Amino acid sequence: MVVRNVVVLNRAGIHARPATMIVDTANRFKSKIFLKKDDLQINARSIMIILTLGATYKTPLQIITEGEDEEAAADAMTALFDSKFETHE
Amino acid sequence: MNTLTVLDLLGLNCKSNKDLKLSVVAGRKGLAREIGTSYVNRPGLALSGFFDQFAHDRIQIFGRGELAYLKQLSREQCIDSLEKLFRYPIPCCIITSEYDDDSAIIEIGEKHNIPILKTELNSSDFALRIITVLGDYFAPSEIIHATLIEVFGIGVLLQGDSGIGKSETALELITRGHRMIADDAVKLYALSGEILMGTGANEVTRHHLEVRGLGILNVNHLFGVGAIREKKQIQLIIHLEEWAPQKNYDRFGAQDITKTYLGIDTPFIELPVKSGRNIPILVEIAAMNERLKKLGYNAAREFNENMLEWLENKRTRDLYFKNEDQF
After folding, report:
1. For residues A51 and A42, what is the distance between their CA atoms, to the nearest angstrom?
2. Which residues 11-40 of chain A have a CB within 8 Å of chain B?
3. In terms of CA atoms, which chain B residue is nearest residue A45?
4. Does A46 sit within 8 Å of B162, measured CB to CB?
5. Do the strands B264-273 and B236-242 form a parallel or antiparallel pair, or are they unpaired?
6. How far apart are CA B120 and CA B20, in angstroms?
7. How far is the C-alpha of B111 from the C-alpha of B119, rounded, in Å?
8. Are B105 and B82 in contact (CB under 8 A)?
9. Less crowded by CB within 10 Å, the N or C end of chain A?
């Protein structure tokens, strides 16, 4: 199990588009991926439940990954949070 | 444990038979005070000077009795009595009866920043409602990844990994006339430690479905108010999972398997998903079967009893005929 601490860096917080990006990133890996805010731990593969977190600007979150590619998954998720959910296309 | 300030209490969206009909009279500066329990207290004894076991952490209700007691005191006595009471860190006072605008309670409340609220309801109605409202609020709760649908009046919680088809199953059940309570994020809470209730975890995302390929759907707008419900008791939990060939699934249904959430046991079914199995219909049938069981009819048990009876009959008959043959 890998645990990483991240902070929501984009001004608008986690709304629909960032949530979609989190799910898309999570789906690239086989590991179980969770997000944790305070004592609420949720599955990072569901848009609706990510939105339920109500993660606003500067909210500290924990990324928890568990499985065969847990390191890579944690790296990718951390990178996504650090990129402020800006698309590089 | 959740915390609730007096301001939160005023902002709670309580409808019809839970409407508390509150308004603030004095002590607005104290609206950030926290209410820690769902119980209420009538401060009659405390007003008369008896403070042993005084439940100061509860909401204090000033009904006709308390106000009448204060009224027959002189103003100095009245202020003295309230000053003693307000030395305790009480969350707020709620007046449920007619009062004079210049009464001491308003003056002292303002002075000590203790919110004084009034309600249009009478004491017993108000006490009933606030205990229900606060009981719901302080109920032990948990947010889980699942979908909650009411099928033939039974609250069915659908669980399973992402992508197994919970939302698609929900969508088909809705088109078949059933009601959706929440998708993906369900908030469970326990009422009086016996009833497991489920509702949408979030006001904004509730009654929305996310279906791969279609995106986010608003069930209320698509199917109308008949297709949604705000909350529902959970009476059956169905776990959807990929069909595992080596796993033994329940073939008979006579065992009572349950799953525990917040200390409450709920009937539990593991439903393997495989092409050729129409999950929404299986969910419907499971819900109807659960209703039959609730009405006292258990198909599997009855089947087994009939079988045993028949075997017993057959054995005696065989014995009888065999004996006859010997004669």
Report:
1. 10
2. 16, 40
3. B162
4. yes
5. parallel
6. 8
7. 21
8. yes
9. C
pLDDT band at B326 (very low <50, low <70, confident <90, very high): low
Residue ranges of B 173-212 with Cβ closer than 8 A to chain A: 183-185, 201-202, 204-205, 208, 210
The residue to which tokens 């299986």 are assigned: B282
How far CA A7 is from CA of A56, A74, B113, B274, in Å, comes to 10, 14, 37, 41
- The reported pLDDT for the residue numbered A87 is 67
Please check whether residue B156 is in contact with residue B178, taking contact to mean a CB–CB distance below 8 angstroms: no
The residue among B95, B96, B70 whose CA lies nearest residue B82 is: B70
Structural contact between residues B94 and B61, judged by C-beta atoms closer than 8 angstroms: yes
Angle between helices B75-86 and B104-112 (to 10 degrees): 30
C-alpha distance from B210 to closest chain A C-alpha (Å): 7
Q: Do B202 and A54 touch (CB under 8 A)?
A: yes
Sign of CA dihedral B246, B250, B256, B261: positive
CB-based contacts of B88, cutoff 8 Å, min separation 6: B51, B54, B56
Angle between helical axes of B166-175 and B279-294 (0-180°, round to 10): 70
Q: Is the pLDDT of residue A52 over 70?
A: yes
Q: Between B162, B205, B216, which is nearest A52 by CB?
A: B205
DSSP for B32-97 reads TPEE--S-EE-THHHHTT--TT--TTSEEEE-HHHHHHHHTS-HHHHHHHHHHHHTS----EEE-S
| Whole-structure pTM value | 0.76
